[in-house]
Amino acid sequence: MLISKTLRCKVFNPTEKKLELLNGEYLNFQIYARCGKNFGVYSLTKSTFNFKYKRKSRKRKQPMPLAGQSTQFRITNNKLTPYWFKLPVKGKRGGIWLPIKPHENIDSSWEVREAKVIKRKKDFWIYITIRKEVSLKTSYSSVLALDIGEKVIAAAVLSSVRKPIFLGREVRGIRRHHAWLRKRLQERKLFKKLKEMRGKEGRRVELVLHEVSKYIVELAEENNSIIVLGDLKGIRKGRKGKRFNRIINSFPFNKLSFFIEYKAHLKGIAVVKIGEEYTSKICSRCGERGKRIKQGLFKCPNCGYQANADFNGAMNILKRSLEHVSKDGAVAFSPEPPMTEKTRAEAHV
Ligand SMILES: [Zn+2]
């Protein structure tokens, strides 16, 4: 499986000469992007830009795109920074090697693809797309099932332990606090402040999502579990109704599942998505229709089972995913074919 990501790198302490060349190339590119006048831009950069955008840009500043074959990336033993990036520059054979600081450390197993150069205030940043091939483990000893909840971001349950783990409770608090703040700022017509706050809320939530996904993947790694997620797209398409609308509107679900998948794949852990239909309404003990009563509590009128509703959901997802588990508790994973409705029904233990 091929995974890719963007590495954000700051150009770090370049020599004056290199900075001058970089500045010149970047400036000439900006002119070219705006009005098509060419004062000297590396030819492949020009054609990459033309290919990608097909017309002049009206933007004041345009990221300078670099074709993968015109760049190079090196990891060295240099003490200042081990990472070096070769940037193509018009009129300079072999380009210039720039010292860069990536936002996270990477090893040489990654392949460098295209990149783009961005200037922020006086600093240059290079965003590099990197990718690598990972192979997912095909056998596991347990299942880690996840339900996306209303009160918590994720309710997790391990097939080997079967106790609930609740994650991301703080998101609700962040949302509430910011909603309150927004209201106050609106009342006082502090629109500039309001705009600033918007980004802040998103960043705080994203930070929590990163922590939650990191924790989940670590848990799966420790327990050699395959990760099973309720399929969020299913909710979006099929389900309407108050509860689901509220969840969809208040939590960045796709982001969380993307983070989990990405981090899991990096460690060779497979993530399976299964339909989430009814997982919140069915009793995980007897399979009958139950009710979500107040404060996130689930109650089954049939067998009297009572539990946290998110935990009940996670248990249902776990049950549905148990088709991966053989009698001795081993879990096999084959990427193809995906689960069918029939196997799903059979898995209903
Ligand atoms: Zn029941």
The CATH class name of the largest domain reads Alpha Beta
Residue windows where pLDDT falls under 50 for at least 5 positions: 233-238, 336-349
Shape: elongated
Helix content: 25-40%
Bound molecules: zinc ion
- Round the mean pLDDT to the nearest integer and report it: 82
The side-by-side strand order for the widest beta sheet comes to 2-6-7-1-5-4-3
Number of strands: 17
CATH superfamily label of the largest domain: YqgF/RNase H-like domain
CATH architecture of the largest domain: 2-Layer Sandwich
CATH fold group of the largest domain = Nucleotidyltransferase, domain 5
Largest sheet: 7 strands, antiparallel
Number of helical stretches of at least 4 residues: 9
Order of helices and strands: EHHEEEEEEEEEEHHEHHHEEEEHEH
In short:
The protein is α+β, with helices and mostly antiparallel strands and 349 residues long.
Written overview of the protein:
The protein is α+β, with helices and mostly antiparallel strands and 349 residues long. The protein has two domains: 2-133, no CATH class; 139-169 and 200-346, Nucleotidyltransferase, domain 5 (2-Layer Sandwich), CATH 3.30.420.140. 37% of the residues lie in helices and 28% in strands. It has helices at 16-35, 43-53, 170-187, 191-222, 232-238, 242-250, 253-266, 309-321, 341-346, and strands at residues 2-11, 64-66, 72-75, 83-89, 92-102, 111-120, 123-133, 139-140, 142-148, 154-158, 164-167, 225-231, 271-275, 291-293, 297-299, 306-308, 331-332. Strand 3 and strand 4 (83-89) form a beta hairpin. Helix 3 (170-187) packs antiparallel against helix 4 and helix 4 (191-222) runs parallel beside helix 7 (253-266). The longest helix has 32 residues, at 191-222. It is elongated, with a radius of gyration of 25 Å. The structure holds zinc ion (ZN).
